[in-house]
Structures are given as structure tokens and as C-alpha cells.
């Protein structure tokens, strides 16, 4: 076994740990989280398919702990006076993309890396492809009526009026709808009220993506902790697309800017993007998983491949959906069991940068 103790917070990539023949059991013994040990074991099992080559493991020296050794408890004789510290180093603001997963619902999100966060349950957005279990029976909560001695949170929860009226500057509702001034998460998370922000859920009517630390962003907006990277990763999986076709679609759609650590600009500079489209079978479904509400999909069928601008994001020619859920729409195109409309009919304009 390699001795990593008495070193000031050493960090190693999964690739480096694997080369040193470190096992996931040893990683777990070094006070890492179970989630990280599981991800490392996944990397060991299939290093070629895994994209966790450069994920880092921080081996903390006492008394520091956390995914990047950013926390510690200052223990004193009187436990009530014990304080919680955050190590003020640059890595506390670096991307920390992995969060605890909600395991009481079996949620299929299309890829293993994007698990269900508890804040995504009953948030008005279907995240699970298996019958939308994350939004199942949420209507009962939304129409819930509270007693006379209770006030109703925006998400339907009921709390006693004594807590609602209490001027403590703290929220009792999970969606913080009882606060007049919203906390500035995650900045507050890094400075004062870490646990308050960690318990914050985005309001269902906002339709925003939860970062998992109190921050809520627009779709494809950037989370300070990097959780948005998991969303883009889930939308860029290869699925059943041929390798060259997949690279072309990833780079042309501009979901991400590199593939297998090779920059899309490099493919463009070598004039390798458009020829790769010739390996595709049309129409192309990309992303290979639904992009919205577990049933909305994009289809691409460009008529003149070599007239495509590599500087602009390629927009889908068709938007496909579940006809039973969208019976108010008149379909103009069908492909297999998919019902579709032209992209411009769904408000998609010209290709964008």
C-alpha cells in the first residue's frame, strides 16, 4: 500500500492512481467519499470507455476533510463552541461537479454520471426517462391545502404560522418562498451559511437548473460548482452513432468544445468535421437522448453538407415529440414512431454562434 499520509493535501488523477495500482478500497480507507470510490472503481473496470481520466482525488491531512480538503471542525472542550471552518484556498471555488445522489427513486437519466438530485423532484421538469418518476404524483402536493394555523409554501408544503411569522432571517420552506430576500448562493455557501444554501431548492415556477448548492441557473447556464458539466456530458454521449458521425455532431452542435480531450477547433482546422458527416445515417438523432421532458428529441437532415458553417451552432431540422402529450400540435413529419415538426415551426431560427 502506498503511504500518502503526512503530505499537505496531495492530489492524484484517477489515471495516476491506476498506474500506481491503487485500489478503490484503499481510496475509501483514505477518508474519501463512497461516491468517489465508486467512480474510481468504474474507471478501473472500463478505463477506455470512462471519461474520468483526469478526475482528481484529494487525500486530506487531518483535521481537513471534504472532496477537496476544504472543511475542518475546530474542536474545543465545550462541544457547543465547536466551530466549522472553510479553508480559504483557491480550490474551494473550483468545479466540484459530483454531488450526493437521491437513491430512493430509480431514475434513468440516460447516462450513469448524471444522477437525480433531491432538488429535482417535483420541480416541474421531467428528468427521469423511466415514466418521469421524479414528477409522479406531484400534482397532489401542488394542490395541497394547509390548515388555518399554517401557511403554504410555494411548493405546497405547510409550515406553522409561528415559524412563518418569525423574523429570524431563516427559511422554513425548502423552496425558501417564505424569505423576503433570497440568499446569494453559492457565495454565501462559501462564506457564512453553507448548510442553508445546501438545503435550498429552486422554485418550481422558475424552471431553472439546480446546481446542488443553492444556485439556480438557466438551462445550460454555468454552475459555479460545475454541475452543469454533467448535463452537457449527458447530452453529448455517443449512443448508437458511428464514431466519426458522433464527433461531427458534437462539434457542430457546440454542446461541448472538445472530444476525448481533442479540441473541436483542431478538427475544424484540419477540415475533418464536414467529411465525418458523410458517415452518418440520416436523419440523425442528436443528442441521442431526449433533450426535454423525457420525450422531446432533435433530428438533423442537412441537405447540403459542405455548405454548413462550422462557425455557427447547427440547429435541428426537426423537433420530435410524444403526440399524445402534445395533441395541440399538428405534425408535419414522421420518422419511425416519432412525430415531428420543422424546427422553424417550433421557433428555432437560423444557426447561432
List strands and helices in order, with pairings:
Blueprint: E1 11-13, H1 14-19, H2 24-29, H3 34-45, E2 56-58, E3 71-74, E4 83-86, H4 138-142, E5 150-152, E6 158-160, H5 161-165, H6 187-191, H7 194-198, E7 209-210, E8 216-217, H8 228-235, H9 243-253, E9 258-259, E10 262-263, H10 264-269, H11 273-277, E11 284-285, E12 297-300, E13 318-321, E14 333-335, E15 338-342
Antiparallel strand pairs: 1-2, 3-4, 5-6, 7-8, 9-10, 11-12, 12-13, 13-15, 14-15
Order of helices and strands: EHHHEEEHEEHHHEEHHEEHHEEEEE
Number of contiguous helices: 11
Question: What is the makeup of the main sheet?
Answer: 5 strands, antiparallel
Q: Structural class, please?
A: alpha+beta
> How much strand?
5-15%
Can you describe what's shown?
The protein has 353 residues and is of the alpha+beta class. The protein has three domains: 11-93, no CATH class; 118-229, no CATH class; 236-346, no CATH class. Helix content is 21%, strand content 13%. It contains eleven helices and 15 strands. The protein has helices spanning 14-19, 24-29, 34-45, 138-142, 161-165, 187-191, 194-198, 228-235, 243-253, 264-269, 273-277; strands spanning 11-13, 56-58, 71-74, 83-86, 150-152, 158-160, 209-210, 216-217, 258-259, 262-263, 284-285, 297-300, 318-321, 333-335, 338-342. The strands form six sheets. Strands 11-12-13-15-14 form a five-stranded antiparallel β-sheet, with no helix packed on it. Strands 1-2 form a two-stranded antiparallel ribbon. Strands 3-4 form a two-stranded antiparallel sheet. It is flat, with a radius of gyration of 24 Å. The protein starts with 10 loop residues before the first strand and ends in an 11-residue tail after the last strand. Residues 1-7, 86-98 and 188-192 have low confidence and may be disordered.
Amino acid at each position: 500500500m502506498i503511504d500518502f499520509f503526512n503530505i499537505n493535501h496531495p492530489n492524484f488523477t484517477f489515471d495516476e492512481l491506476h498506474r500506481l495500482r491503487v485500489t478503490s478500497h484503499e481510496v475509501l480507507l483514505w477518508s474519501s467519499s463512497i461516491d468517489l470510490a465508486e467512480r474510481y472503481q468504474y474507471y478501473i473496470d472500463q478505463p477506455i470507455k470512462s471519461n474520468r481520466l483526469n478526475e482528481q482525488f484529494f487525500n486530506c491531512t487531518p483535521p481537513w476533510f471534504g472532496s477537496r480538503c476544504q472543511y475542518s471542525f475546530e474542536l474545543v472542550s465545550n462541544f457547543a463552541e465547536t466551530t466549522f471552518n472553510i479553508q480559504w484556498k483557491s480550490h474551494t471555488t473550483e468545479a466540484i461537479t459530483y454531488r450526493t445522489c437521491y437513491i430512493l427513486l430509480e431514475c434513468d437519466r440516460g447516462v450513469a454520471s448524471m444522477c437525480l438530485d433531491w432538488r429535482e423532484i417535483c420541480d416541474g421538469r421531467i428528468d427521469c426517462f423511466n415514466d418521469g418518476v421524479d414528477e409522479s404524483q406531484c400534482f397532489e402536493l401542488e394542490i395541497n391545502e394547509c390548515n388555518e394555523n399554517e401557511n403554504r409554501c410555494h411548493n405546497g408544503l405547510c409550515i406553522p404560522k409561528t415559524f412563518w411569522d418569525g423574523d429570524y432571517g431563516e427559511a422554513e420552506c425548502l423552496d425558501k418562498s417564505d424569505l423576503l430576500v433570497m440568499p446569494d448562493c453559492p457565495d454565501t455557501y462559501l462564506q457564512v451559511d453553507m448548510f442553508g444554501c445546501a438545503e435550498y431548492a429552486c422554485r418550481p415556477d422558475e424552471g431553472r437548473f439546480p446546481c446542488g448548492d443553492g444556485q439556480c441557473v438557466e438551462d445550460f447556464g454555468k454552475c459555479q460548482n460545475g454541475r452543469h458539466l454533467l448535463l452537457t456530458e449527458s447530452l453529448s454521449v455517443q449512443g448508437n452513432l458511428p464514431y466519426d458521425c458522433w464527433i461531427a455532431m458534437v462539434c457542430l452542435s457546440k454542446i461541448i468544445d472538445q472530444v476525448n480531450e481533442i479540441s473541436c477547433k483542431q478538427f475544424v482546422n484540419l477540415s475533418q468535421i464536414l467529411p465525418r458527416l458523410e458517415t452518418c445515417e440520416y436523419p440523425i438523432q442528436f443528442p441521442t437522448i431526449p433533450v426535454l421532458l423525457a420525450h422531446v428529441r432533435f433530428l438533423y437532415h442537412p441537405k447540403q453538407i459542405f455548405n454548413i458553417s462550422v462557425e455557427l451552432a447547427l440547429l435541428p431540422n426537426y423537433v420530435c415529440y410524444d403526440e399524445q402529450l402534445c395533441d395541440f400540435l399538428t405534425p408535419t413529419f414522421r420518422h419511425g414512431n416519432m412525430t415531428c415538426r420543422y424546427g422553424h415551426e417550433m421557433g428555432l431560427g437560423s444557426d447561432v454562434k
